[in-house]
Amino acid sequence: MKRIACGLIALCLIPLGLVHAQGLTIDEVKGRIFDAKMLKQTFVNGLKFCNELNGNNFYFPPRDRVLDLDEYHRSLESLARQQVFNPERHKPWTEEDATDRWEQVKRQATKDKENCQLVASLPDLEKQLADMEKKAAEAAPDKKN
């Protein structure tokens, strides 16, 4: 008798786990849609350069343009060699400053590429969400009765 009761409980819990997992997936898609919509507003100037933001370039907001990573790296090395004044640090550029800034712009290039990909995926995400919500509604028992 205990074995039958445990089996019935287990069978009842399996669908709850699937509904819970599906809810997380829907929430994740909703989160990505929210992120993409926010990026459309906050990264609006950079979005026009998405065809260039491939991980080898990054968007430079102060000049509203895209800069090549390799060229930027050479410029940083030159600034450090010549010990040009660094206005951010209020002292001449050092190798350490150049390395820090290099790492920062490499991360920025990756982030810009990911931002463009996320915004580009917005229509697909919205379609995916609609399909998931439709399937969830069809799978849910009729609550009118």
Report on this model:
This protein has 145 residues and is mainly alpha-helical. It has one domain (2-132). 71% of the residues lie in helices and 8% in strands. The protein has five helices and four strands. It has helices at residues 2-42, 44-47, 69-82, 95-120, 122-139; strands at residues 57-60, 65-68, 85-86, 91-92. A two-stranded antiparallel sheet has the order 1-2. A two-stranded antiparallel ribbon has the order 3-4. Helix 1 (2-42) packs across helix 4 (95-120) and helix 3 packs antiparallel against helix 4. It is elongated and about 75 Å long. The relative contact order is 0.14. Residues 1-24 have low confidence and may be disordered.
What keyword list fits this structure?
4 strands, two-stranded antiparallel sheet, 71% helix, disordered N terminus, 145 residues, mainly alpha, elongated
